[in-house]
Write a structure and sequence with these properties.
There is one protein chain. The protein is α+β, with helices and mostly antiparallel strands. The chain contains 4 helices and 10 strands; from the N terminus they run H-E-E-H-E-E-E-E-E-E-H-E-H-E. Strands 3-4-8-6-9-2-1-10 form an 8-stranded antiparallel sheet. Strand 3 and strand 4 form a beta hairpin. The radius of gyration is 25 Å and the shape is globular.
Length: 237
């Protein structure tokens, strides 16, 4: 009986040691994984900083109203930025040239109204509950002009409501494209319109028509593959 108890205790002790050893290995693996992720994040930040610097050096060389190509998984659009909304023009151009928008989603789509994108949170499928809340950490002063209305294809800046944002400052990155002029007419004079779609209006309609779920999020993601400077707007070397 004593021998049986002794064997049982030995086996239990060995199992505990193995369990403890396994836990330590798992903890060490987790620490190493965290270190590697931190290293990769640091490299990504350095690489992005280089892209931002390159984008900023290119901004003064752009034409007064540069054209950008928005490539999505549902088609391609071209937008022209207005020269008389310089703060928004420069901001959008800098973000696009640095690759900031690449991989984001049109996270809010309302047929008969508009399609909205530019939220960095939308790159993470697990962060769906926060779609619409992300940005680069700054806002852009309003440039609301009477000569720019919400016509079909208009490019405008999303923003927080008047109660929290009486100056009507724009989101640092989120934008929307008008799908229906009548549906967006009430937004005239309320939001900064800083560009227009010059090609691909049918793509806006195609995106607006997709099936959506709660918070107007498309059931099947509509991804912005890239936003790049059009060949016609590239500075001569």
């Amino acid at each position: 009986m004593k021998r049986t108890i002794f064997k049982t205790l030995c086996l239990a002790g060995a199992a505990f040691m193995m369990f403890s050893c396994g836990n330590k290995k798992a903890e060490q693996a987790a620490i190493e994984a965290a270190k590697e992720q931190a290293r990769l994040d640091s490299l990504a930040q350095v690489e992005y900083a280089k892209k931002v610097a390159e984008a900023e050096s290119l901004l003064p060389k752009l034409p007064a109203e540069p054209v950008f190509v928005i490539e999505t998984n549902l088609g391609t659009m071209k937008v022209k930025l207005y020269s008389d909304t310089p703060k928004h023009r420069e901001n959008f151009a800098k973000l696009a040239l640095s690759g900031y928008y690449d991989g984001m989603l049109f996270h809010r789509v309302i047929n008969g109204f508009m399609i909205q994108g530019g939220d960095p949170n939308s790159k993470d499928p697990d962060a769906e509950s926060t779609y619409g809340q992300g940005g680069p950490g700054y806002t852009v002063p309003a440039e609301i002009l009477p000569n720019h209305n919400h016509k079909k294809g208009a490019l405008a800046a999303a923003r927080r409501g008047d109660a929290a944002n009486p100056q009507r400052e724009s989101s640092g990155s989120q934008f929307y494209l008008v799908q229906d002029e009548a549906g967006c007419a009430s937004l005239d004079g309320q939001y900064t319109v800083y560009g227009e779609t010059i090609e691909g209006l049918e793509v806006i309609d195609k995106i607006a028509a997709v099936e959506t779920k709660a918070k107007d999020i498309p059931v099947n993601p509509v991804q912005i593959k890239s936003i790049k400077l059009d060949e016609s707007s590239k500075p001569a070397l």
